[in-house]
Amino acid sequence: MVHNGLVYLRGNPTDYDNWAPMGNVGWSWGHVKPFLLKGETNGKIDRVGSFWHATGGPVSVERLPYQPPLTNSILTAAMETGVGISEDLNGDQLTGLSVVQTTSKDGVRRSSATAYLWPVRHRKNLQISLNSTCTRVIIENKIAVGVEYYHNDKFLTVRAAREVIVFAGTIASPQLLLLCGIGPKKHLDSVGVRVVQDLPGIGENFQDQIMYNLQYTLDESDIYDNNWAAAFEDLWPFRPVLFLATDLSKLWIFASGYVAGCAPGELDALQSTGKRTVTPWPVYHHTRSRGRISLASNNPFDKPVIWSNVLSEPADVAGLIEAINITLKLANTDALKAHNFTLSTTPMDVCSDHPFLSTEYWVCALRQSVVPRAHTGGTCKMGPSSDPMAVVDPQLRVYGVGGLRVADASIMPMVTFANTAGPTMMIGERAAGLIKKHSMQNFQRGCLQ
Ligand SMILES: Cc1cc2nc3c(=O)[nH]c(=O)nc-3n(C[C@H](O)[C@H](O)[C@H](O)COP(=O)(O)OP(=O)(O)OC[C@H]3O[C@@H](n4cnc5c(N)ncnc54)[C@H](O)[C@@H]3O)c2cc1C
Predict the structure, then answer these.
(1) Is 6 in the pocket of ligand 1 (CB under 6 A)?
(2) What pLDDT is stored for residue 85 in this prediction?
(3) For the segment 60-94, what is each residue's pLDDT rounded down to a tens digit?
(4) H/E element, 211
(5) Which of 46, 114, 382, 393 could form a disulfide with 411 if both were Cys (CB 3.0 to 4.6 A apart)?
(6) Tell me, what's the pLDDT at 251?
(7) Can 354 be counted among the known catalytic residues?
(8) What is residue 249's predicted lDDT score, i.e. its pLDDT?
């Protein structure tokens, strides 16, 4: 898994309750919740309770041990605006401002690799090949039988005794499938890849969330003390997170710490404005724009083409502007005015035809500098066989090719209304359960024969 921002959010139960009626049997909230709990060890179980949280799983979840002094004022601002405060965004208070939960232990990062792989790295039936790039899934007679990978200047192959599981992420999983001839026939023909299975949905349905950067200054010096507290303040996860209650958690805002930038050109010199800056990022989660991942060529080392197509749906533009306006409103509260919270974002020249901060201004500004959230999914969409754009079935098996599953964020038919690492780890847990069940059934069938 990528080195991410540590935020642990599961999304809204309705996310999964929307997946299930699309034909994804076994993926409603009631079905996935046990797998979310199975993965978790919550360091504050007394505070969050065992109905929504668990102990005993490999992923440590907590709130980081230090929050900057401004946090309380931001929470007060949330009360002042009516946004409110949530004690637990992974519990039954899905809206309101909250100090975010993180995948960390005693303040130290825990990735999915440290949680899941590291403790079992010595198992005899596990071999980890570092610095290796998978270049192809080997398919014989429409069955995946192994993979080819590149390691130390050599192409090597490994055969699968049972199944091949692809989990290279929203961009690389469809790339790998396309490279081995599974995908839309027309596209495969155009890049000279022999078609193994015409599957039109591969690479389609690309989704990402979107955000925009606002900047504020505070009445505090931006000189940092050389101590741990100062170091922590510069880290993203100490930001408070806001979920807002319009149409079920569509909006999310986070203030990314007190950011210290490096002055251009000068080694070791901090960029100083004389005042501390705080960077809230209004985010829109529930995007409707859909893009595509395709191959640039049949060379596995060529980067794929990402056509994100963000902001192609007017509702996404409107949603992000709503989030921006709520952020502006928060900043305008007595609680934050007490810190002389002042917008330092300056109007863009290219949008100067529109009054600064007007809707027309934001429509123009978003077109200039909307930021992809990197919470992507959808490109190997899970769905029933009746859906021509489905890539995997609800057991994560690739349609039309035996012995091949996908188990990562790419299978989400719709990306969850929050950060995607927690839901993706759940997909991994769910996949492990499905694979074990399949193996047991085969074993029992073998015994009965
Ligand atoms: C900068 C950033 C910050 C983020 N912050 C957060 C956050 O705070 N909280 C949150 O919930 N989510 C966050 N996310 C999103 C979250 O990390 C992803 O949703 C999650 O990692 C998706 O998991 P995945 O397994 O689908 O893909 P990935 O995590 O991308 O894992 C795929 C893995 O496959 C490897 N791989 C790819 N191609 C090949 C190949 N050909 N051969 C071999 N290996 C290959 C990659 O190196 C990678 O290790 C963030 C994402 C980014 C980019």
Answers:
(1) yes
(2) 86
(3) 999 888 777 788 888 899 899 888 888 888 998 88
(4) strand 210-211
(5) 382
(6) 57
(7) no
(8) 42
Mean pLDDT, rounded, for 32-38: 97
Tokens of 44: 């504050």
- CA of residue 2 to ligand 1 center, whole Å: 4
250 domain-assigned:
yes
Tokens encoding 414: 């719709």
**Residue 421 near ligand 1, beta carbon < 6 Å:** yes
- Half-sphere exposure at residue 126, Cβ-oriented, CA atoms within 13 angstroms: 10
User: How far is the centre of ligand 1, averaged over its atoms, from the C-alpha of 395 (Å)?
Assistant: 21
Catalytic residue among 53, 187, 286, 375: 375
- 5 Cβ inside 6 Å of ligand 1: yes
The helix/strand/coil state of 210 is: strand
Rounded alpha-carbon distances, angstroms, from residue 350 to 86, 353, 367, 369: 39, 8, 11, 11
* Residue in 3, 4, 15 to alter for ligand 1 test, most ligand atoms within 8 A of Cβ: 4
- Indicate the burial class of 128 (C-beta count within 10 angstroms; 0-12, 13-18, 19 or more): exposed
133 C-beta closer than 6 A to ligand 1: yes
Residue 7 Cβ contacting ligand 1 at under 6 Å: yes
In-domain check, residue 92:
yes
Burial profile 322-345: b = 16 or more Cβ within 10 angstroms, e = fewer:
bbbebbeebbebebbeebebeeee
Ligand 1, atom nearest to 1 Cα: 29
The boundaries of the domain holding residue 355 are: 67-99+210-284+311-369
The rounded distance, in Å, linking the Cα atoms of 181 and 178 is 5
